[in-house]
Amino acid sequence: MSRHCQVTGAVPGFGRNVPWSKKKTSRRFDVNVQTKRYWVPSLGRNVKLRVSARGIKVIDARGIDAVVADLIAKGRKF
């Protein structure tokens, strides 16, 4: 499973390491993904989500019920 946020859809970025010698090597910018468990009153159960730090802020701002309703509308399973 890749490091991917279920709320924002953030995925790893790719780039290059460029040292002084200019010998370029590829690198990967991973997303700060954490597994969080939330109580969803509308479902009456806990939901475990893999969310980034920005995804946690989105849940705090909009509320877990609204975010879960959007995920269900998109057809995602938990």
Automatic annotation (TrEMBL):
It holds the Pfam family Ribosomal_L28. GO terms for cellular component: ribosome. The keyword Chloroplast does not apply. Keywords: Ribonucleoprotein, Ribosomal protein. Belongs to the bacterial ribosomal protein bL28 family. PANTHER family: 39S RIBOSOMAL PROTEIN L28, MITOCHONDRIAL, LARGE RIBOSOMAL SUBUNIT PROTEIN BL28M. This is Large ribosomal subunit protein bL28. It comes from Arachnia rubra.
